[in-house]
Amino acid sequence: MSESDEKGQSAGGSSAAGAAGAADEQVKVLDSSFFFLDIPIAGTKFAVPPSVVAEMKDLRSKSKLDAMLEDGRLFVSEASPSTRKRVVAASKKSGDYGVISDTDCDVVALALEIGGIVVTDDFALSNTAQTLGLTVIPVQMRRAKKRQWKYRCTGCLKFCDAPGVCDVCGSEIIRIK
Ligand SMILES: [Zn+2]
Fold this sequence. Notes:
alpha/beta
């Protein structure tokens, strides 16, 4: 892995588009599965609904969650009942009602309420979130494949380990060849 060409290259001419929302990092709302997997995630702002906290019953996932709470990167918040109703309505529209769990609904509702990004690998959850216009990113990177994907920030052009939002400039990180 080379980390040689990070910032150095960042095109001196900085495009006009890059200026947008540099300071804002969107909150990533995590589903339960994130805490069961040993996968790092970029960012400094994360949120979960109380129902996700309640699902952390084994020591490993619970201590992962506690560590993130302690270092201040993660907060617990619950969406209002009316937002939750919107999510249930959306799941009916998308055909995911009955498949999507209550906790999953809470995750989507919280993301909707705080304008966050949903982090999940669950199809029904992802589908419902996208019906509501939310951005969804997967928990698992495709590291199992032989091909090693690279990620790069569209703003400052820094090379990154994962898609999402750049922790330097706040722009979107995309996959490159
Ligand atoms: Zn950046």
